[in-house]
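Attaching the record inline, Q. Sequence:
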Amino acid sequence: MNKINKYPNHKLNCQCPPCKNKRGEKHKVNCKCGACKAKCGELKGKNNPSFIDGRTLKEYKCEVCGKKISRNAKRCCVCASKKRNEKPTKYSKILTKEFLIQEYIKNKKPTTIIAKEINFSDGVVLKYLKKYNIPIRKPLGITLKKYFCKINGCGRGISFHTALYGDGTCESCANRLKNLGRKRPDVKERMVGKNNPSFIDGRTMKKYYCIICGKEVKYSTALYGKGRCEKCYYKMFIAWNKNIPMSEESKQKLKNTLKEQFAEGRKVWNKNTKGLVKSCNKNKKYEDIFGKERAKEIKEKISLGKLRQFLENKGTNGGCNANKGCIKKGEHRSVATQFSLERLKLMAKQGKFNIKPNKPEKRMSNLLNILFPKEYKYTGDFKFWVENFNPDFINVNGQKKIIEVYGYYHTLEDSKKRDKIRLKTYKKYGYNTLVVWISELRDIKKISNRLLEFHNAK
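Structure, as predicted:
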């Protein structure tokens, strides 16, 4: 079966070369298609369909030397470069033949110094020497030699330029020769004693000694430390009553106190033990030590304690921690209830403590930072509670003001009832609330005017 042809203009059994190639049929021996003609060489010259006037078949030669060249060129590369060099350039205007003979041969200057005087490179000078057929001198090893400063006692290495064509001195010696007329004291003489800009009363220049043994100590230990050497300082930490026997009165008092304690029910913890006893509860769980029921109660108490610390904006140690959101001047303490503690407990199990603001809350926080910088704080991460409710934004600088951002969830009936109770509880504790819907955040001018009125209102 023949394959169906994809091209609608061609027939099913079309004899054109592309259709034959697709069907996998071979070309005949005397095939007259374009591809076969090109292989045989029948499409060369005038037989080619793109033939115009035979300009590509002609041979083209250079105008000057007669070498073969391409049809687009007029001269060969050598003749073109010669003509290019005949044009006057900025180099040829300065580097004339007379100038080079005068400087290079008569004055015997090297190419490096000639180039430095004209602000050209060495290669350009050498190029023009070859162009004018001026004999180039062989290197005499001047640059390979080592040259040193002329001044006695210095002996620093210098370049061959400064040695042969300069002063023959290093930089430091040249600067000294310039400043020979000036009298300048050394740095040590200038900065010692009263000449020092940090001089007060000469306390650092005095000698200080240890209070106990009389050894020399630094002025810092004498004035701002204990005033003792290292040995005397460490002797302070040794017990005052070491190697002193206990008096009989103190022994009798110890015996009486121990008798009273054992009479009340005190027991010896290390009885029938050798050496120090390590803690038996190390690397053990609460279930292994207290049992399952008791372990649950202990864990619940610990979690509730941590949650209370979290709500009160305190650190884990119970004290105020400045790095972890300590209550600052003007901030309000949260009023936590059993409901809020239980809710936080559930969230701790789910791992939802790292709550971040959503998009509308981010917009509101950016707007508040622009209008009232360092006035309002985001508290929607459950760090601030008013009974059973957690506000979105709260004023930090003394004013009792709350801003709530409402979305679709607050349009439901259950949430409407809850929002009414929310506003009442805020009012109960003296907070003024402003409710902002997400749709209102689109018009920035209106919402900014509304926020300004709310913030400035007493």
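DSSP finds 19 helices and twelve strands in the chain. Confidence is low (pLDDT under 50) at residues 1-5, 313-327.

More tomorrow.
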